[in-house]
Structures are given as structure tokens and as C-alpha cells.
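$ run holo --ligand "iron/sulfur cluster" --emit C-alpha cells
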Amino acid sequence: MRFRIYRYNPETDTKPYMQDYELAEIQPDMMLLDALEEIRAQDESLAFRRSCGEGVCGSDGMNINGRNGLACITPLASLKEPVALRPLPGRPVIRDLVVDLSQFYQQYRAVKPWLIREDPLPEVEFLQSPEERKQLDGLYECILCACCSTACPSWWWNPEKFRGPAALLWVNRFVADNRDQATEERLSELDDAYKLFRCHTIMNCADVCPKNLNPAEAISRLKHRMMKDSI
Amino acid sequence: MNLPRRRFDTLVIGAGGGGLRAALQLAEAEANVAVVSKVFPIRSHTVAAQGGMNAALANVSPDSWHWHMYDTVKGSDYLGDQDAIEYMCRAAAHLVIDLEHAGVPFSRLENGKIYQRAFGGQSQNFGGEQAARTCAAADRTGHAILHSLYQQNIKSKTHFFDEFFALDLIKDAEGYILGAVVLEIETGQPWIIEAKCTLLATGGAGRLFRTNTNARINTGDGMAMALRAGIPLQDMEFVQFHPTGIAGKGMLITEGVRGEGGYLVNCEGERFMERYAPHVKDLASRDVVSRAIYTEVKEGRGCGPDGDYVLLKLEHLGANIIKERLPGIRQTVLTFLHFDPIEQPIPVYPTCHYVMGGIPTNRFGQVVAPYNEGAEEAIPGLYAVGECACVSVHGANRLGGNSLLDIVVFGRAAGNHIIEHLEAHRYHRALASESVEQALERLARWERPGDGESVEELRADLQKFMEQNCGVFRNEAVLEEAVHKVTEIEERLQYVRLKDQSKIFNTARLDALELENLVGLAQAVVRCALARQESRGAHYRVDYPERDDIRWLKHSLYFQGQGHVEYKPVRLKPLTVDTFPPKERVY
Ligand SMILES: Cc1cc2nc3c(=O)[nH]c(=O)nc-3n(C[C@H](O)[C@H](O)[C@H](O)COP(=O)(O)OP(=O)(O)OC[C@H]3O[C@@H](n4cnc5c(N)ncnc54)[C@H](O)[C@@H]3O)c2cc1C
Ligand code: SF4
Ligand code: SF4
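-- output --
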């Protein structure tokens, strides 16, 4: 199987280039990460992040044949040759397939992604019915892989001002939680021309999310909520 | 020595559940704390924990911490220290509530309380009916807990060094630990981080074995760092094999599946666990189920074309339960096996999962070792928690759901003890430059030019030998061979060379450093396993099939260098209740 991989090592390369690799032996059930590990056994200078290998840690997000995804849960059989691998788009490249995600994490931190309570804590757990808990499904599973935000044209243009789909999904995760008491604060914090309203519903985020989450829908729910509150 | 230098009150190495829970305790007390992690914190392996965390909340069945304690002692095959176990089981409910308040989205019961499921080895009333003690957020409990702990830490302004690789501890002539030398992965720059207290929370070492449920980063770095600092490792022969890894691949299928009513069958369609554990069947303790599966396959009752696995049936649970309570494993099976477990049983086989041994500590998280006077002297300035540590609550076999509990209970306890320690030790000690030089030499060793074997080849061999020679069933001959082979690998390691000598994000260099750590640990595992002539918990010796309390009710301590094993007594006396005296373990 043939691969074309984005290479760039700032110590030695003046500019990035694509390098071809070939793997002779491909098992039918191999994932892209397995192939990358084999390529790295041939050429140890190829850098990429990876950890769990089963789609739960979010390390190995990359651009695979033009689409963002996690290498460890992308079956080789689903890919057209040559498989073109690039770093997640729109972020500074540290080396090869490794990008600098500090801005992505900053946007996440900026939305205060933690449960906020004003009232004193009970001695036992907060009560939450199964229906109330269900409101969090589709939101709390986000692994912060950055596939969505780095596929979002609005975030490419305004990464420092637009929060981007992942951070906004997290806002919704807390807004949807009946234990959280900062909904007002969370919504008013987003009330400017950029943080939330730069989303033009292009839907790339929902299209690429490897956990099948739908940040676009979370964003539109936030927008609705805000409209309703402002009437 | 012109390295960038930073100073903190406390340095936490590792940002999994253990490290983050400790850091949170410290940050909330406004102690100045830094967390170093070789991956961005939420990529730590705690994120992968599925089934849940134990606590006697009694939300589903009657329960008490004392019953939980009994199950844990029995599960540990009586090798667990009973004071630490009592402490953990008593603290459990408080810590689950704490996590819930921190935002963990636990699954819920109709009455709004936290949902609890049944797990293996849990009983009511000291060995009676099955208990439901495991608190779960669907089958993504670790993800939910790790994210919430990280979020609380950013709220409390913990200082993070993300993607920094800890090389070695800094230690002075009097044995004080003064921080660590760490490598900034992005730039390749080594740093000195000085601290009055250092906490190791670097997780497990499942990557010792070819087939395992662990992340690629679980290479036992903290344990190996301790060994190199002259600290022994405790009970390393006890490696847990999880009964239900996906056959041939290793991804975990949580015990929660059996807790929800799933069961195992062999090629004859027989529910074979009834023969091995007539009372609790598929919910027997993990070592028991793993041996049963292994035996079925060995005796020719395995499934599939090669008869090399058994089947885990869950179709009868119905689509709703599977979608609601086990969505993560359904996704894993769809992704890696291309079928829906709602319709078909899952091929499973025992897989390396958890390291029960590790850096010896007391229940305050202080690292303890025979040093000058006693057998359990605290190493000044050093703490350890989580899978890299051995308090020892898991003894010879860990019950499912007790490890997430272990990391938050002892993470918090260590945090509290460190706060006290800092009050008594207000100043940093003078830096020990020889110790820093040693760490840098270790790094420089990988800059040697020339041709040699690759890291990849050597690691593959190591993992293969460990699997073949130190697996579920062991005996003297194969273990002797294992010691021999691991020693050979250690020799070969000197001739491994890196072709890539660049500085920036050099993953090959990290692989090499990790391999070095794994080799050190493999020595500990095989030497302790060869020495222990009995069968206890996860350590099963075909040549010594019985547990032997007279000779072996004691902890192993492996020291690097001399390669020898010493022993120390098990703490059989709990804090306030009566001892659970060893008796035969039947399920
Ligand atoms: C698939 C799976 C499922 C599990 N399910 C359950 C369950 O349902 N219930 C349960 O109780 N237990 C479960 N366990 C066990 C439990 O999850 C782990 O034992 C526990 O999470 C370990 O936590 P930790 O904080 O010790 O380490 P980890 O979460 O592994 O974190 C280790 C940290 O150390 C850092 N680190 C390591 N080496 C270095 C270095 N050299 N330099 C810098 N940083 C370093 C890493 O970056 C990471 O941040 C499961 C384990 C696995 C593998
Ligand atoms: S829907 Fe909004 S957030 Fe998602 S990709 Fe499009 S513009 Fe970005
Ligand atoms: S929403 Fe999906 S794509 Fe975006 S960061 Fe979370 S898991 Fe990744």
C-alpha cells in the first residue's frame, strides 16, 4: 500500500515536502495507526502523536486523504491510495504530523469548562434523574482531539477570537447539566460578534468528529438559547 | 551545567487520575504545584477506564465499607496490606461524592442517585450475595473522571508542563529527593525542576507484554526511575491478565459487560465458568476467570478456526441496555471487529492489563524502603500513587473497579501529607549536581553514532519473551529461561543505536528511553516470579499449585543492580477492625 506523508523538521528542512512510503504486507483488518507504526519502524524520523490506539485518548488526530480523523480507528481498507497524510490543518506545525495545539487548548480553558455551583454542596450526591443525565449524552464524550476545530473554516480565520466547535460543545455540556448554576454567565460571556456567532453552520465539525458528536448542533442550541434569553 | 531551572513546592510526575487528584488537593490548599506529563493530561491512560469505580454507597444493594474491605482482602489473595485497604474502603464513598460534585456525569438510577453495577468479587455480608458496588458513567468512567479532574485543576490554577518527559529523579548524598530532570519534548531541551516534594504518578507498564489493554505510553517510567534511584520495587511478579481482551488484539471489553449479565461460553456452547466458580460464575475474581479461559483453550474447547479464544455473549441483554450502559464497548467492537455486539458474541482471551506491584508506599503515599534502620523508612521528599505505586491494596490480584478508587483515595491522601510535610520543610535543599549529570548521561548515551539494532526490534523481542515465558501459567523452567532472555536483551540494549539524532519532537528518542525503562522492569518481574515458589492471585506456578502462607505470605522487594529479591511482611492489622485471617479463596 502506498502513502504520501507530510514531512517537515525545522532543524533540517527549509520547507515542508511530501514523502512516499510503501508497505508490502497489509493485513485486512489493519488500522492506519498500525501502518504508521510500521512506517516508523522503517524510518524512525517520522514524528506523530499516539497513545491509546483505540479512539479514546484523542492523540492521533491528523488529516487523512483530505479529511480530519483519528489514525487508530481509521481502517486502511477504507482509504484510497496513495494515502495522503497531513497534519491537522490551520495550526503551526512542530514537526511532521505534530501540530501546536496551544490555541485550541486556550479556547477550551477560556469557556471555564468545569461545573460551577453557587449553592453549598450537599453531603451526598446531587440528585439527577436519568432523563436529566441523558441531556449530557453526545456532549461529555468529547476527547478534545481537535479534529473539528481544525476543520472549521471560521476557526482558521479567527482562531484567537472564535471559540471553535470543540470549546462551544463544552459550553453546552455545562449549560445542559442541571447541576451547573452558571448558565447566564456562560451565555453572556459568548455574546459578541466572534466567540459564538462566527459559526456559519458549515458543518465540517459534525462531519469529521470521530466520536460521532455534533458540535454544530450544540452551537445552534446555544444560539437559540441566547436569542430566547434576549427577548 | 547550564540548564533551564524551575522551582516548585511540589512536583507531580504524571497527569492521570492519581497525579491530578493529588495536584488538586495541593492547588486547592494554595501550595505551589507543577504537573509534568509526557502527554497532554487527558491523553493519560486513566481516560480508557471503562467499567467504573467501587464504593459502598448502597444505592442498589445493601452495602458497607467493611464488606468492601473483606472482598478486597480476599481478592488480593491476602497479600494486600489491611491498614491501607481499610483506609481506602472507608474513604471510597466520600471520594465518589467528591467526584460527583466536581462534575463527573455518573449514570443515574430512577431516584436520581448514582447508578452502581455488579463487578467480579463483590459480595454482601462477607461472602454472601453478589453486591452492586461499581459506580459508572456508562462505560466511559475513566474518561469522565479524568476530564473532570483536569477541569478542576485548571480552575485551581495548577501549573502544567505538558509534553515533558521525566528522565530521572534528582537525589542528594543524604538520600533526599530534590525534583527531577525532565526533557521538553517539543524542543529536546532538558530542564531541572526542583521541588521540596516529588510525587510519582506515572501509571502502569502493560507494554511489557505483546498483547495488552494498555496505551502505548504505559512503559513504567516512574517505576524504572525509582529503581535507578536505588529504591526497590514491590510485588512485581503480580501482573493482572484481564480475562476479556478482544482476542488477538487486546482492546479491553470491560468486566461491566459481565456485570450487566453477559457470560462466557466455550466451543460447545457451555457456560464453563460454572465449573470453575459454581457460586458466582462469570463474576469470579479476574485471576480465576483468566485461568479458566486459558484452561478451556488449552484443553481444546476454544472457539474459532484455531480454537484460541472463548466467546463473551451479551446479545440477550437487548439493544437498549447495550446502547445505554455499554456504548463504548459497542463502538470498539464495531470499529475493530466490524460487527455489532447487539447481534453477535465477542471473541475474548486473557490479556495483560494491570501491574499490581510497584514503588512501595505507606497509606500516606510516602515511598518507603529499607534504608538505614527499618524495613519501611520513608524516603525523604518522595511520594508515589496510582498504578506505579504499591500501597498495597491490590495484593496478588486486583478487583475490578478498585484502581480508579485507589488513584483518587491515595492521590488525595498524598496531597494532604505533602501539605503537612511542606509546613515542616520550608526551604529547598542544595541541588545535587552529580545526580543531574547522571540523568544527562543517560540522555547522551542515545547520541552515540554508528549502526546497531533498532529500538523496535528489541522491544518486539522483549514483549514476545515476556508473553511466552511469564504469562498466566508459569513454572521454574520457563521462568529461568525468561531471566536468561531478559538479561540477554539488557546486553543487546547497549548496542541499540538511534539514527535520528534531531532534537525537535524526536519520538524515536522517547521510544528508546521507554524501552530502557521496560527492560529494567522486566528484570524485576521475571526475577520475583522465579523466586516465588507458590501460586497466589495472578501468579500461578504450575510446579507449586498451592498458596503457601507459611513461606510466602510476604511482599517481594526487588533491587536493581544486584538483581536480588528481599522480602518484608504483609501488614495484616487493619486500623480499627479485626484482621481478616487468610483462608482458602473460593468463588
Ligand atoms: C483499558 C483499561 C480499562 C480500565 N478500566 C478500569 C475500571 O473500569 N475501573 C478501575 O478501577 N480501573 C480500571 N483500569 C485501571 C485504571 O484505569 C488504571 O490503573 C489507572 O487509571 C491508572 O492511573 P494512574 O493515575 O496511576 O496513571 P495513568 O492514568 O496511566 O497516568 C500516567 C501519567 O504519567 C505520565 N507519565 C508516564 N511516564 C512519564 C514520564 N516519563 N514523564 C512524564 N510523564 C510521564 C503520563 O503522561 C500520564 O499522564 C483500567 C485500565 C485499562 C488499561
Ligand atoms: S458548523 Fe460552525 S463550528 Fe462547525 S465547522 Fe461549521 S462553522 Fe465551524
Ligand atoms: S467534538 Fe469531536 S472532533 Fe471535536 S474535539 Fe471533541 S471529539 Fe474531537
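-- notes --
The pocket of iron/sulfur cluster (ligand 3) is lined by residues A 142-148, 165-166, 169, 209, 211, 213, 215 (CB under 6 Å).
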